[in-house]
Amino acid sequence: MKKFNIFDIEGMEFPAGRCTRVMYGENGMIDGEYFCQGFVVVYPGGSVPMHNHETIETYTVLKGNGTVTVGDETTEIHAYDSIYVDRNLEHTLTNTGTEDLHFMFVYAPKMIVDHWAQEKEGSLK
Known about the structure:
Elements: E1 12-14, E2 18-24, E3 36-42, E4 47-51, E5 56-63, E6 65-70, E7 73-78, E8 82-85, E9 91-95, E10 101-108, H1 114-121
Antiparallel strand pairs: 1-2, 2-3, 3-10, 4-9, 5-8, 5-10, 6-7, 6-9
């Protein structure tokens, strides 16, 4: 058995207003063989900027409120909502509430997605 606490992982702070902790995957606490999973805290007014990638992805909201856009469809999200994003579809998530929004992401196949580096260098906002 492999076990850890999510908060034992050093979080990556992003300019758009969130902290990401990769649990499983190439850059995770444990190298997931086929998928990547992480825990994200999006601060009030923060977001995951609009992006796309070749992986399928899910977001599962654990706490908070916001909006998510996938393709040309936007909807409100709340605790316990889960969103499926097909490969190569543009998507974004924004915390519209007054408290932190917590969510888990899972994508497959596992890889380090380009949009993290793009956001840190300032080319994705």
